Amino acid sequence: MGAVYATVQDIATYGRPLTAAESERAPDLLETASALLRREAASRGYDLDGMIAENDDFSLISKSLTVSCVVRALNASADSTPAAVQSSQSGLGYSVSSTFLNAGQQLYYLRNELAQLGLLDQTYGAMEVYDIGTDA
Asked: Is 100 helix (H, G, I), strand (E, B) or coil?
C-alpha cells in the first residue's frame, strides 16, 4: 500500500465540509483515489512518489487533485438526486434525455488535472499528404 496524498481535514479545507456519514467514507475514498493517481502516473511511465520526494510542489498538487477526486464522488451521493449536466426534452411525442454528473459515484481524474501534475503532455503529429518523394 502506498502513501495517501490527502487527509479528511484536507477535504474540509480544500473541498467542502463533510457530514458525519461522509467523514466515515472519506478515508477509504482517499486511499483509493491516491492509489488511482499513483496508477495513472505509473501507466504513463512516471514514479509519482519519487516525483513527490524530489519536489514538494508535487505533494501539494497531488493533495489538491486527490481532494477534487474524492469531493466529486461525495457530491454524487446516493442519498441525493444526482445532478444532471445536460438535459433535453421533446414535445408531443414526449422524450426526455439526461446526462448525469458521476451518477455511478466513481473516483476519476480529469485530463486537465493529470496535466497539472505533468502526466499528460501535448502531442502533435503530421502526415505528408502529397508525398512526392525525392528523385536525387
From this structure: strand
Name residue, grid cell 499528404: 129
Cell of 55: 519536489
**pLDDT(78) > 60:** no
Q: Which carries the bigger pLDDT value, residue 104 or residue 118?
A: 118
HSE at residue 24, side-chain half, CA atoms within 13 A, is 2
**49: Cβ contacts below 8 Å, ≥ 6 apart:** 2, 3, 38
> Model-level pTM?
0.70
Residue 60, amino acid: L
* pLDDT over 70 (residue 82): no
Question: How far is residue 105 CA from its own chain's centroid?
Answer: 12
DSSP 35-88: HHHHHHHHHTT--HHHHHHH-HHHHHHHHHHHHHHHHHHHHT-TTSPPPEEEEE
